[in-house]
Design brief:
Length: about 170
């Protein structure tokens, strides 16, 4: 099974670094849509991704239009606080794309209005603006993987120092 995480114009290198680490440990492919608010060589970005940067599969796009054009016909799910449907109410197909917008603006409203049935949200208290981008991405990634029964992931655990008793 293949999962694709898309960050449209991310601004904060630590968020992208954290999301890249989530992609590395889950096998998800990362898609970065320019312009980025940082250089990919940024020290903080690589520090947040730690030693996982070389374990990533990353595709770069020059713009949102470029991304949409190159992935026409794919199943895209747009995460936004403006959606009516909750992210856990969706059945995510193989090779789907979960798409997140800028930390400060989200995704363009014209994109959301044109794709209302593909928009999903993470429930939160109504008086608060939104979750941190890397937290939202982790929630989404693990919901998709849960639905797929965590393919290719270690489900048994790695107990090395402890012995658990019944």
């Amino acid at each position: 099974m293949n999962l694709n995480i898309v960050l449209v114009e991310p601004q904060i290198p630590q968020n992208t670094g954290n999301i890249s680490r989530t992609c590395a440990v889950t096998g998800a492919r990362l898609h970065l849509v320019r312009p980025l608010g940082f250089e990919v060589t940024d020290r903080q970005l690589k520090r947040a991704g730690l030693d996982y940067w070389d374990k990533l599969s990353i595709t770069y796009y020059d713009s949102l239009f470029d991304f949409l054009d190159k992935n026409a016909g794919e199943r895209l799910y747009f995460f936004t606080t403006k959606a009516r449907r909750v992210y856990s109410e969706v059945e995510y197909p193989d090779n789907c794309f979960i798409v997140f917008g800028r930390e400060d603006k989200g995704l363009p409203e014209e994109l959301l209005y044109g794709n209302e049935k593909s928009c999903v949200r993470i429930p939160m208290r109504p008086e608060l603006r939104s979750l941190n981008l890397s937290n939202a991405a982790a929630i989404a990634v693990y919901e998709v993987l849960r639905q797929w029964d965590f393919p290719d992931l270690d489900r048994e655990g790695r107990l090395t120092r402890f012995t658990w008793e019944d």
